Amino acid sequence: MNPLTTVRRSKGLTLEQVAKNLDMHTTVLYEIEKGKKSTISERATNIATFYGIAVEDLFVPTYYRAKGT
């Protein structure tokens, strides 16, 4: 089980509850949790803040590059 799922379950929360609190679709949160979808840094920060955990403890840092370069 990945850290996102572990922390959500440890807090007794469902995907639906977290998604509603973060104002995002349950499907998107599910795909992020399962590693099927990456996310922007702002959303990763929002998720981490909601759980009260450092973003680097939940997500792998990514490399950002300007489009078209």
Automatic annotation (TrEMBL):
Q: PROSITE patterns per the record?
A: HTH_CROC1 (PS50943)
**What is the name of this protein?**
HTH cro/C1-type domain-containing protein
Q: Which CDD domains match?
A: HTH_XRE (cd00093)
Q: Give the superkingdom in one word.
A: Bacteria
Gene3D superfamilies according to UniProt:
lambda repressor-like DNA-binding domains (1.10.260.40)
Q: Which residues form a coiled coil?
A: none
**Annotated signal peptide:** none
One molecular function GO term is: DNA binding
Boundaries of each HTH cro/C1-type domain copy? Answer: 4-58
Q: Origin organism of this chain?
A: Bacillus thuringiensis subsp. higo
